[in-house]
Amino acid sequence: MAKRNTGAGRSPRALILRLYDGAIDSIVIVLVLVMLVTLGFATYEVLLNVIRLVPTFGTVGVGEPQFRELVGNVLNVFIVIELFSTFAVYIRTHRIRLSILTDLTIVFLLRELLIKVYAQSRDAGQLYTLAVVLLILIVARTILARLPPTERARDE
Asked: How far is CA 25 from CA 8, 11, 39, 95, in A?
């Protein structure tokens, strides 16, 4: 969402729009701070998992729950990074870009698919469904990337 041109007047409409813009900016700034704290905790959790696994590295297989938890936590960090990227772009442009949301959704679906495959999930239907949705999103993202910048900027 772009900043509005509220004009130089002191009309009630201009005041309301300025208050609205200020409120949205404040909320986004608080959310960015929350995201930074969340990213810190997620990274800390990954480091704790690695420290717990180091003594058992030779004995713990990749299919063990501890190892799967580490993989899930690493993928969670990537999701938080993508969310943070969405907020950072919004702060700069006051727009939510469709391409970034598509990237975020792709990362989230990849995380879910990898966790299910890594856990050796027996539910083939769910794996196929995730894979098809992931493929559709990747095709959509590829189309977004190929649009000329002027059309893409208008659509996002």
From this structure: 20, 21, 21, 12
Residues 36, 80: Cα–Cα separation, whole Å? 9
Answer yes or no: is pLDDT of 136 > 90.
yes
pLDDT for 7-35, tens place per residue? 555 788 889 999 998 998 899 889 888 98
On whether the pTM is more than 0.70, the answer is: no
Are the beta carbons of 46 and 70 closer than 8 angstroms? yes
Dist. CA 127–CA 130, nearest whole Å: 5
Q: Is the residue at 34 inside a domain? A: yes
Round to whole Å and give the CA distance between 42 and 73: 7
What amino acid occupies position 147? Answer: L
Q: What angle do CA 83, 88, 89 make, to 5 degrees?
A: 100
Full domain range(s) for residue 121: 12-155
- pLDDT tens readout for residues 91-135: 888 887 788 888 888 988 988 888 887 777 778 888 889 899 999
**Structural domains in the chain (count):** 1
CA–CA gap between residue 76 and residue 42 (Å, rounded): 7
**Where do we find the tokens 């900043």?**
3
